[in-house]
Write a structure and sequence with these properties.
InterPro entries: LpoA, Peripla_BP_I. The chain is α/β, with parallel strands linked by helices and 718 residues long. It folds into 3 domains: 168 residues, no CATH class; 160 residues, Rossmann fold (3-Layer(aba) Sandwich), CATH 3.40.50; 236 residues, Rossmann fold (3-Layer(aba) Sandwich). It is 45% helix and 11% strand. The radius of gyration is 31 Å and the shape is globular. It starts with 46 loop residues before the first helix and ends with a strand.
């Protein structure tokens, strides 16, 4: 006797009449999902017709028709009905799978595959409704079924995964899903190739490494091509040589469709995407107007000007570690020690501009560069460090004329008014945020400009680019990378100051985006509060309270040790080098005698650039992010940091970093226009691997270093 659905009433919402033609037999469900006719294909039969068939069919066939109907509702873009029917059909399948007559392994597998298809219907409907969190859960269900039963995903699963991951700002996972989807297609569409390439060009260097670690299909040729573009894309002749080598190695790869385009000079090359066109863009900038407090910590480090942190808040990655005595004592003659007094003030190619009267107006010359820095008074030391970095780069590659304008000696209107007299064709700076705002207020100014900070206002004009070393970017890289190492429950130990709080918030936000889990945070100020914060984070204090309570209840002697939380599997430190030296060994030794060693990571705030007489024993095993120049071998005579330490041995780490930033800014001048036209071009600089984003912001990719007893080793974390 045929068994009919016990809940046929659920169809009453849709049924309007009886079927007038014999129902087709549904495609048999096989273990290879790729053989299943699903919502990816255009059915000639409507969803309502499948519902009509289901009303008269026996139970198992009715379930098949209901699955088809839900898929077809999605095809017809009737997403609410598709979602509702998929949810109800899931319940009916669960009831049928519990029936004693349907316990065979083959039938149970068919039920699971039906659940898989319905999960995709639900995900499709939810994505269309902008319900991305719920859609992600449906995709998790589909993935669990596919993993349990060793099934190959349908391409539609990966396309949905791509959309969900993009919405959740997981660019690497999104592109991984897209690559998997395209690999399942019988033929690769040219648009798919262009899309993959465009998305690859948007990834940072560390994101490309993370993508490779996910092992997407046939990715080696893609990685070889994007790395060649990163390194050689600025020089078209060198790039063409690399493209020829790539073609020889991967003659049959889909990306060969890009080679003719990439081999064409930029001036003759049509854009693959409208997104590549330069335009005014908005960029989200956090309101940092209150970040002007003088910080106090274990090293008694603070900025000597109360407004310096505010004005440099997106350029200084570690304002709190700037030594006030060093800042107060640095003077301009340091520049002469490096460059020679004559070249600093009177050389043919370098001019210290003080606003002398000029009457001749000249057309802009791209090789005449105005550099706007605070060279006297407030924030002078930061301006001098940037100036010296620019001049060091200039010494290695002269040929341009540099005009230095002191933003503390003249107002911005005066400075800009002199540009025509000097035929200025490019501007580096200003450095201070307030000066950038004043500069941007000069409405008639249309010169290409490289800011050395982020403006307070939210728009960077078409010809303007902002170069900053904001610490939030470093926190995003660290959180994303460490989340991929399968750490589940991090403890963030952060010094309580404005900068560290910004870094902490960026780390937490990114970690939650990656894992859905909010990290635990313990803030400390100074002295013993570090140990207290650490114990509170690991709940060692609570453990001791429990031991004391038991001891009071039982008069006999009880041997006991405090235990820490076992779920915390990683510590991330945001603090100065001295604070980190105190925290790291305490974590290693005193957290708990029972627990295994907890790995400790840190931001660049923890790493000092001093290279003489440094003992790393207390920091052994600590892994941190920092600029490439900070990880150079100090024995290397060509090391920029070695040079900086020799010339300015008492200079703070903060100013060494601004020095490196100035160095990179000079080298970027020639590349920025190419980077705008070719988003795959990178600059391998002292401060990081630099790329230009769609928002006209220079973004850095940092390296990872690890302390050993007597040295720092560069390590790779994907």
């Amino acid at each position: 006797m045929q068994k009919h659905l016990s809940k046929a009433a659920i169809l009453s919402v849709f049924l309007v009449g009886c079927a007038t033609s014999p129902p087709p037999t549904p495609t048999p469900v096989e273990q290879d999902l790729s053989t299943i006719t699903t919502l990816e294909e255009d059915h000639a039969v409507t969803a309502q017709t499948y519902l009509d068939y289901a009303a008269d069919a026996e139970q198992l066939q009715s379930l098949d028709y209901l699955v088809y109907a839900s898929e077809q509702f999605a095809n017809e873009e009737n997403y609410h009905k598709a979602l509702w029917l998929a949810l109800q059909t899931d319940v009916l399948i669960d009831e049928a799978s519990a029936n004693a007559d349907y316990q065979s392994e083959e039938q149970q597998l068919k039920f699971e595959i039906a659940h898989y298809r319905l999960a995709l219907v639900k995900a499709t409907s939810l994505v269309s409704m902008q319900e991305f969190t719920r859609a992600s859960k449906s995709l998790d269900t589909a993935n669990e079924i596919a993993t349990t039963y060793s099934l190959q995903h349908l391409s539609h699963y990966y396309y949905l995964e791509n959309q969900v991951q993009l919405e959740q700002k997981r660019d690497v996972l999104a592109l991984n899903a897209y690559l998997n989807a395209v690999a399942l297609n019988e033929e690769t569409d040219e648009q798919d190739i262009y899309t993959i390439w465009f998305e690859l060009t948007q990834l940072t260097s560390w994101q490309v490494d993370q993508l490779e670690a996910l092992s997407p299909p046939d990715f080696a040729p893609w990685k070889a091509l994007i790395l060649a573009a990163h390194k050689y894309g600025y020089d078209q002749d060198a790039f063409n040589t690399q493209l020829s080598k790539w073609q020889s190695e991967y003659p049959g790869h889909d990306a060969n469709a890009l080679i003719a385009h990439l081999s064409t000079p930029l001036s003759e090359r049509p854009a693959l995407f409208d997104k590549f066109e330069s335009q005014q863009v908005e960029m989200p900038i956090d309101d940092l107007s209150n970040s002007n407090e003088s910080e106090s910590n274990l090293t008694s480090d603070s900025l000597d000007e109360p407004q310096l942190a505010e004005n440099l808040s997106d350029t200084l990655p570690d304002e709190s570690t700037a030594d006030s005595n060093v800042l107060a004592n640095e003077i301009a003659p340091e520049s002469n020690e490096m460059l020679g007094e004559d070249s600093m003030l009177e050389g043919d190619e370098l001019i210290e501009h003080e606003g002398e009267e000029q009457t001749q107006i000249l057309p802009p010359n791209k090789d005449h560069i105005a550099v706007l820095l605070p060279l006297t008074g407030r924030a002078k030391t930061a301006g001098l460090a940037a100036q010296q970095g620019i001049m060091t780069a200039y010494e290695k590659k002269p040929g341009k004329k540099l005009f230095f304008y002191d933003t503390n000696a003249q107002d911005m209107t005066e400075i800009v008014g002199q540009f025509e007299q000097q035929a200025i064709g490019y501007v580096i700076g200003p450095l201070l945020k307030s000066n950038i705002d004043d500069y941007m207020a000069q409405s008639t100014l249309a010169l290409p400009t490289l800011f050395l900070n982020l403006p307070n206002k939210s728009i960077v004009e078409e010809k303007q680019v902002a170069f900053s070393m904001r610490p939030e970017d470093e926190a995003v890289q660290a959180a994303t990378t460490l989340a991929r190492q399968n750490y589940k429950y991090p403890l963030v130990m952060a010094h309580k100051d404005k900068t560290s709080e910004r870094i902490t918030q960026a780390f937490i936000t990114r970690w939650q985006q990656e894992t859905g889990v909010k990290p635990q945070v313990s803030f400390f100020s100074k002295g013993s509060t570090m140990q207290t914060a650490l114990k509170d984070g690991f709940e060692v204090t609570e453990s001791k309270k429990r031991i004391a309570s038991v001891s009071r209840q039982f008069p006999v002697s009880i041997k006991s040790e405090a235990r820490n939380r076992r779920d915390i599997d990683m510590v991330y430190i945001i603090g100065s080098p001295r604070q980190t030296r105190l925290l790291k060994p305490y974590i290693d030794v005193n957290v708990s005698p029972f627990a295994k060693l907890v790995p400790v990571f840190a931001s660049s705030k923890s790493h000092s650039l001093k290279i003489e007489g440094v003992d790393y024993r207390d920091l052994r095993g600590l892994i941190f992010t920092d600029m490439p120049v900070a990880l150079e071998d100090p024995a290397n005579e060509q090391s920029l940091i070695r040079l900086a330490n020799q010339l300015w041995p008492t200079r703070s780490d903060t100013l060494h970093r601004i020095f490196a930033m100035g160095y990179d800014s000079y080298q970027l001048v020639e590349k920025i226009e190419t980077m705008k036209q070719a988003p795959y071009v990178r600059h391998f600089g002292e401060t990081g691997v630099l790329q230009l984003t769609d928002e006209n912001i220079i973004l850095r990719s940092l390296l990872w270093g690890r302390y050993d007893t007597n040295e720092i080793q560069q390590v790779v974390l994907n």
